[in-house]
Hints:
The protein is of the alpha/beta class.
Amino acid sequence: xxxxxxxxxxxxxxxxxxxxxxxVSRQTVTRAMNGMTGISxxxxxxxQKLAAELGYTPSRFAKGLVQGARISVGLAIPDLTNPYFxxxxxxxxxxxxSRGWNVVVDDYGHGSGNAVDAAARLAPQVDALIxxxxxxxxxAQDIMGRRPVVALDSPGTGTAGxxxxxxxxxxxxxxxxxxxxxxxxxxxxxxxxxxxPPSSRSAAAAAVAADAGIQLTRLEAxxxxxxARLAVAGLAAAGAGRPDGILAFNDLMAAGVLKGLQEAGVxxxxxxxxxGMDGIPLGELLTPELTTLSLDLRAVGRAAVGLLDGLLSGSxxxxxxxxxxxxxxxxVLRQSA
Length: 337
């Protein structure tokens, strides 16, 4: 894990801003905003009026400290039908519940929904948010206001904290292994629909290939096993132009690649080696078993909840270098490559 440099500090009003404007202590602001005794009605009303003018509202977390409520964390997931996300979600839930927190899950990736919709649905219910929010991470933080957001796989985000993944490191592992096997016509099967820009995974693979002098062709399919299967079926008919190594966007697409190659009579790994990415348990159940760039999903969940714990408690300043982590994949060699 390596820290990332912080983004610009936020300008949202804090309890200290209200205290300074009202000429009272922080404790008095807490009492005024939470309906506690020990201050006059006049002071209460004056503090509440200034808080409204400054746009300050106490977080659900702060109220929980005063009132004894449990922490509630939102978890925004783009697609629970992809086995990666339930595995990640379960690790977050395990870590959060071990702290006595509640977790509210929103699966936003169906229909026309996006991360902004998920944040808007979760915001009234939660004290903080964890999720795969790109490219709307900053908008999600705006919706959450002063409550912290930990965004995953969203480089350059302005959220309170974040976890990114070193896809250049992953690509170097995979492409070096394919090259060592003698692969010379390697393809990256990217996740996309209709000629969109390359994903961060694909862009990293292209940069690593260029530096290493490796020929790499980018292909594209919707991020499902079925779409990957169809994309590979067309490649298999290409004869001499067929790839002899395929790196897939994720393990789910790699499963489709294996199926498509099998149906076309292409031997794996003899005629074409295949590597997936993410390391979900599905890979061990395939035939041949899938070589993959694996993440320790339990470690990812622990890291996300750990960041959130520090941000909520105040022991970890928002947007500080320590609030951002970069995690690395490891190459797990199995039968497909």
